[in-house]
Amino acid sequence: MTDRRHFSHPDIVKRLKRAEGHLRSVVAMIEGGRSCLDIAQQLHAVEKAVAQAKRTLIHDHLDHCLEETVGPLPREKRGPVNEFKQIAKYL
């Protein structure tokens, strides 16, 4: 199997560990009877961390794996690949 680690993976791991910590806090907050507002704020932090990790992973994949698979293309044929990368920014 090929090693598929990329430059962004340590950052993704860091984000996911941060989300893991936030999620543990949410569980503790619920068990401790904290306010719904406090819990909702922590859940929002979890969502943001996971979403950012996903976005980083997808963009990294597009920038490296897709480029590697497609290979060198003449400028006039790169349009669809470049458009796909642009639209992925809205994930």
UniProtKB/TrEMBL annotation:
It comes from the Bacteria. GO terms for molecular function: DNA binding; metal ion binding. One of its GO terms (biological process) is negative regulation of DNA-templated transcription. InterPro entries: Metal_Tscrpt_repr (IPR003735), Metal_Tscrpt_repr_sf (IPR038390). Belongs to the FrmR/RcnR family. PANTHER family: TRANSCRIPTIONAL REPRESSOR FRMR-RELATED (PTHR33677). This is Metal resistance protein.
